[in-house]
């Protein structure tokens, strides 16, 4: 292994490093022979098939040193598959991968890492029961004589985390105990613990709040200034405009456009190359006020120490209420507590006037609540089970007669959902594991759209969902509200909250600090509110 | 409020996407469907959960065929005689019957993400309990009731300890293994208790339409288990609870209660097995059903049940049990020792799992290729 070289790297940029560090930081420092602007990676006609699916069907890609190359494409277009080919996870069936002028095939992820390609995967690939430091250095631990040098690893990890703007994450903490955003930071730290020429980021911003994304961009700029190339995948076009240099668009496993200028290409062009159709930009219209019905959910004085305090809110039938706030402001915890997945220490949750038993999901579901949780893989999906069984996971009992399930009915219902959310591939018998990230997310949300739900709790419902399907999802949510379903929506994307919700609550540090009709707020006001105060400390100016 | 930050919406008259550039051609889609093996008409009737079970099971049938071939080669004279072969098949099934019933319960527990080490001990306790003088005085009905009630109750204790007491299944059932055998020994005074009920003793001795009653019982339990796992909400919950307990909980499934019920179900199977075993021996004692837990777990694993939960099939488990019984039978007709037999069994466990993995992959590929060539 190459730790020895890594270890002898001279310290650079000592100002941002914590005081107790050794002189061994490879972070944000390109190998000496990097030439900015030189083509480091070239893919020609790369094909990758899975049983029954041509995930990549002739991909061309060219990445230069020091650039941020964005990959755009709908859910299932093949972006993650492509980067897995680059990372040595998959081997291409045919086509050529040229790395720094030479054709290569990486036999395994280690080979790709050794060649200088570091990857942050879309689905977090951390070992939950190992510490932050152990995860960051998984597979290339600092060792001497076969013993892991914990102290050194911890120091090094603290340094990297410090550079990432998250010096507060303790290297010894179990990853399981971290929130989603924290986990994302750890996988970023892992990628940066290698000496890389190319860093691939597959939807890194999906779990990050606004200020975290800014922080990520700062890091990316530092990387590219060093001549390191970055492949950046995101469904948020604003991000691509802000950070990207060039864009390659994939559709159905093929490159439909290569090397477009990221800033100047009209959105219409990008979207039509991605989707093959034109798309208008609107949230569904809000209905006139009289459609909002009786009070459905009443939450009073809900408290959990360290998570949120004294939260009161209500949702009426047919109303969409949005919660804006940073990751860590207690939004997800609040939602889970309302749903009974966590027991409240104080306060009550009422559905249609009746108090729900705290800490009982069963009671909440019987009262008509449904929740799409934040983390699809660990909290929502049975990966080996077919799509339709995942869609009906919460409702199969409803279709059953005398305890016997009705597979035909379930399949038909799931088909309906798959259709309305543009699930691709549409075949609901496939195991969920084989779906792309965005399509898995649609399955999670789709579960509660089956009907019979009176109150929908949505935690980051559009995470990883592409532009077209996102619009469909908004329409579906609005249509549900029009039928009298109440919706409580949490999202890190302020425009989404403002555009979709009727009423917005702003949360900071576990408290609701502002409540207003969505029309009275704009993005900057909300951002100022959520970030005011102590949270700004340490954030980049 | 339509001037909020924009997001895209499809224009109503957009062309249908797949028509423009189909991501996969129809032949390939057919294979995809087959991989998931649920839309497919063939094989679909014994499709367990996850759909891969059927192919896995074909591998087990291959192993079984190989064992029979070994038998036919080593004892060609016996295998040339159809009546002997028929009787031998019945003998193997009868041999498999008791462990088979226990394995059905074990399969549910493992799919549900647990493990039950106490099955052998529960069989022994139920057997001893139903053959005490006091119980026998209530007649065969009383004995059957006692065995099943004891099985369910002990299973419930396991379940409560694990789901509400939050004990690790391994520890809880290990403790139960020790305790239940201890209780069985103290109830029976370490004596063998003879069953005087002719009804009970006849279960193992009698045949109906030429097939032993024990085999019918196995068949009934397997069928019930299959239906329960694949066709009922109970089965679906089992898979969900074992596959991703957090997802199951957030979908509104009562994970704890379900876990408890799984152990009760395993206990029920042990109770049934206790009656069968008591009938076979016409007696019961505290040391009976020794190491059944290992046989049952091994059979379930060979059958493709994932030890970490969430996947498994009843048919696979049944095949696993039958494979073990066939090995025992093979060694018996060749007059080989128990020791050699155990070594081979260990090897078979490893081999079967390896073969399944290999065979599963290559079989899928083969299938994909065939479909492609025939459909296009
Ligand atoms: N292991 C697999 N087995 C079978 N099919 C797969 C597998 N992995 C991916 N696919 C299929 O390959 C196609 C491309 O998937 P991929 O994950 O690359 O999409 P993506 O562009 O990353 O989408 P998203 O934006 O949703 O993340 C999809 O149709 C997906 O279902
Ligand atoms: Mg992806």
UniProtKB/TrEMBL annotation, chain B:
The keyword Transmembrane helix applies. InterPro entries: ABC_transp_permease. The chain crosses the membrane at residues 54-73, 85-111, 117-135, 142-161, 167-187, 208-229, 260-279, 314-333. GO terms for molecular function: transmembrane transporter activity. Residues 1-12 have a biased composition (Low complexity). Keywords: Cell membrane, Membrane, Transmembrane, Transmembrane helix. It comes from the Bacteria. Residues 1-44 are annotated as: Disordered. It is found in: Cell membrane. GO terms for cellular component: plasma membrane. This is ABC transporter.
